[in-house]
Amino acid sequence: MADREFREGDHVSWASHSGRAHGVVKEKLTYRTHVRGHTVNASPEHPQYRIRNDDSGRDVAHKPEALRHEER
Fold first, then answer.
1. Cα distance between residue 55 and residue 10, in whole Å
2. Where is this region: Disordered (predicted)?
């Protein structure tokens, strides 16, 4: 796992089928949960992040290695 740490409010981007998507970190997930009907297998050892997509306004979850910090 990459040693990437993100905090609530960080602006991030990730690869999507239409190029790069952008959003804001809403929370660090350290437990198994669901985001928009998809199971997120997060744990304290393998956290994921809930992100609000800038374009759609929908929440998504991503592993830290899929994200990169962006300037606002």
1. 16
2. 1-21, 36-72
Q: Are 21 and 30 in contact (CB under 8 A)?
A: no
pLDDT tens digit string along 22-55?
999 999 999 999 999 999 999 999 999 999 999 9
Q: Which residue has the tokens 């009907």?
A: 37
pLDDT grade for 1, boundaries at 50, 70 and 90: very low
Q: Count the residues in the chain.
A: 72
Q: CA 55, CA 31: separation in Å to the nearest integer?
A: 27
For the chain, domain boundaries: 11-69
Regarding beta strands 11-16 and 68-69, do their DSSP bridges make them parallel or antiparallel, or are they unpaired? Answer: antiparallel
Contact between 21 and 66 (Cβ < 8 Å): no
- Compute how many other C-beta atoms are within 10 angstroms of the C-beta atom of residue 40: 18
